[in-house]
Write a structure and sequence with these properties.
mainly alpha
Length: about 100
């Protein structure tokens, strides 16, 4: 729901923020990240790295929001209609 809203905000013609800008602003509220360093210079560098990483993750969540947390039809039907998969019906993939 939040990702859908943020996507609408990013696509709103009156909005001047890009999806990247929205991700940068929202990321610190989604991810709690701490540098863990007592050295001030190292802490600042680490905080910048964490800010960049969390904003990239947020941007990926926004970009892929429609395919996240979806369940394929056979799995959905197995729960709705009480049919369960057997080992024979599973497909093995190699990684």
């Amino acid at each position: 729901m939040l990702l859908d809203f943020l996507d609408k905000v990013a696509k709103e013609p009156a909005n001047k923020m890009t999806a990247e800008s929205i991700a940068m602003v929202v990321a610190p509220n989604l991810f709690l990240a701490s540098s863990g360093s007592r050295n001030r210079a190292q802490a600042v560098d680490r905080e910048l790295q964490l800010a960049m990483a969390t904003s990239q993750v947020t941007l990926l969540l926004l970009a892929n929001r429609s395919s996240l947390w979806t369940v394929n039809k056979p799995l959905y039907n197995s729960f709705v209609f009480g049919h369960y998969f057997t080992l024979e019906s599973c497909v093995t993939i190699s990684l």
